[in-house]
Design goal:
By secondary structure, the protein is an alpha/beta fold. The protein has twelve helices and 15 strands. The longest helix is centred in the C-terminal third of the chain and has 19 residues.
């Protein structure tokens, strides 16, 4: 029973008293789920994408790296859109890979000031970008945690274990871990290449993962144990790196296959894996990247139930909103989906969205 935008009561048919005049929705043959949460959404000032995502059941999104004011034009449209959790621009050092999405800091004091400014604007998390020295990452984390804000990071050339020890709560992109799993000299050469030319990582990340051995590798086992003990949230964004032979060569395809395998190994070991779509990916139509990410997680070895939990409750924990969203429980906000079929049998059934509810109201689909 939904009342005032929240789940007021849950019970079995015939046992739960339904108030007179209640709108009753017949859901026979459908599956009821909490609204989906996207940990890694990029809008790129699109006026149509937020509404597309909402119609596809994604009721909450986190944009990790876009100025908050870039959403002004979207809001002014007055069209339905998911609940927004914004970080503002990612914090980075000079020169930035993406100048339009970066806030440049040059010392520890500027790190603290950047966090202070973003928090004052309403940031719900902070994101640091690769190129940031570990000492400055520590300062960002300290300032963010003082304000109750989690910190997530796209690293790739910074050692993720060092960054997590400095306070990072979440990691964006499975590619971030590649430089830990190769010999130190190779990792340093890769770092220097990327620092000299950011585009070197586009091919370089696949070459790196192509060389990594995941079998009986103490570096792999040690990293997984570390992530599990730290309960670090991982948003793999596999769809952003997907390579098949129609769009890539054997090195790229094998490198991507290794990323898939490693993601499955993380989940099997109990590392918190969440769903982040990246929005714009090679093997999904506009607005459907989230479904593709779920399907790739199944290919990585996650069960449909594990994927659904990653998309809902695990992401709610990552966002620190688990008391309000992420599951169907009394007192939580009424973000709900009705899906034709049973996604526990096949995660592709998630595409069969029948109805979407946001804040207790049905979305016009």
């Amino acid at each position: 029973i939904i009342k005032n935008g929240k789940i007021d009561a849950i019970g079995k048919v015939g046992e739960l008293k339904i108030p007179y005049g209640t709108e009753v929705v017949e859901a026979r043959g459908l599956t009821v789920l909490p609204g989906l949460i996207d940990a890694h959404y990029h809008n790129e000032e699109s006026l149509e994408l937020p509404e597309l995502y909402l119609k596809n059941g994604v009721t909450s999104v986190r944009d990790p790296g876009e100025w908050m004011e870039s959403y002004d034009s979207v809001r002014l449209q007055g069209r339905p859109m998911p609940r927004l959790f914004l970080t503002g621009p990612h914090i980075n050092t000079y020169p930035p890979a993406y100048p339009n999405d970066a806030m440049i800091v040059q010392d520890n004091e500027e790190c603290r000031l950047a966090v202070e400014k973003l928090a004052a604007q309403g940031a719900t998390a902070i994101k640091v970008y690769f190129g940031m020295p570990v000492g400055m990452i520590r300062e960002v984390c300290s300032a963010a945690h003082e304000r109750g804000l989690p910190v997530t990071a796209h690293l790739e050339i910074t050692n993720a274990m060092d960054a997590i020890n400095a306070g990072i709560d979440g990691i964006e992109h499975i590619t971030t871990f590649g430089n830990i799993l190769i010999p130190p000299m190779e990792a340093e050469l890769y770092k220097q290449k990327v620092m000299a030319d950011y585009n070197a990582r586009r091919r370089g990340r696949y070459e790196m993962w192509n060389r990594i051995s995941l079998n009986k590798n103490e570096k792999v086992d040690s990293l997984i144990r570390f992530l599990q003990s730290n309960k670090t949230f991982i948003s793999p964004t596999l769809a952003a790196f997907e390579k098949r032979f129609d769009k890539g060569d054997s090195i790229e395809v094998n490198g991507f296959t290794q990323m898939l395998r490693f993601t499955g190994m993380l989940k099997k070991a109990g590392v918190p894996v969440v769903v982040g779509s990246h929005s714009y990916v090679a093997y999904a139509n506009l607005g459907e990247a989230y479904f593709r990410e779920m399907e790739l997680l199944q290919e990585a070895g996650l069960s449909p139930m594990e994927i659904i939990v990653a998309a809902t409750m695990e992401n709610a924990r990552f966002f620190r909103i688990e008391e309000k969203l992420g599951s169907i429980e009394e007192g939580k906000l009424a973000d709900l989906l009705l899906i034709r079929g049973d996604p526990l049998q096949d995660i592709r059934q998630m595409r069969n969205i029948e109805k979407v509810m946001l804040n207790g109201k049905w979305v016009d689909r």
